[in-house]
Amino acid sequence: MTEQSVVREKRAVILLSGGLDSATVVAMARAEGYSCYTMSFDYGQRHRAELDAAARVARDLGVIDHKVIGLNLDGIGGSALTDSSIDVPEAPSEGIPVTYVPARNTVFLSLALGWAEVLDAQDIFIGVNAVDYSGYPDCRPEFVAAFEVMANLATKAGVEGKPFSIKAPLQNLSKAQIVQAGIQLGVDYSLTVSCYQADDQGRACGKCDSCRLRADGFAAAGIKDPTRYF
Question: Which residues of the sequence carry a binding annotation for ATP (predicted)?
């Protein structure tokens, strides 16, 4: 590859959790002609099945590089996903649920921003959704827009005229629409894990909020959900 072709390469850093939404976003970015660089986080979550799923998705969708960054969000706790003393709820709750992880998307996007600056990639993709979601404040369009403003104030690239764009292509899609889009783009959803409390084999509980949203999305799309349950 020549130096000139490297400069022209359209690169994107994509947050990849190993779940349905983020896998779809990788496929969308690839379809738009991006060279995809994916980032996952070992942040002290209840299970590693989603990290294994992220690695599978990255391989299947042909990303250029897939990084797993170690964090210690369980050190501050405050979430059913990082604190084993807090039960994962198995029924819808009012307000922001206990599965919300304090500052998670802010931290994740900040690290993705750092890698994007190193890669000379101006686009960062995240699979947040404001239609079929659990009510997390860091999934709202206002958050995405505010982070983009901050990214361009806080970076060398931003202040030197290479602005970053935070892309959330699923923002206004229903879960059914996300599934349909992914199927059209060739996403193998059997590789993904969405459950908040999956076992070591990646099998889902079928009871948590994430399982419910996923199952409802596949049902509404009229597509069989390949999720395995324990």
Answer: 16-26
**Contact predicate 210/129, CB 8 Å:** no
Full-model pTM: 0.93
C-alpha span between 173 and 181 (Å, rounded): 10
Binding positions for Zn(2+): 195, 205, 208, 211
pLDDT, tens only, 192-212: 999 999 999 999 999 998 999
Q: How far apart are CA 129 and CA 126, in angstroms?
A: 9
How far is Cα 107 from Cα 70, in angstroms, rounded to an integer?
Answer: 12
Class of the CATH-defined domain 3-221: alpha beta
Q: 175-184 and 20-31 helices cross at what angle (nearest 10)?
A: 50
Annotated binding site for ATP: 16-26
Q: Which is nearest to 78 in space by CA: 97, 102, 50, 44? A: 102
Binding residues: 16-26, 195, 205, 208, 211
The tokens of 150 are what? 């901050």
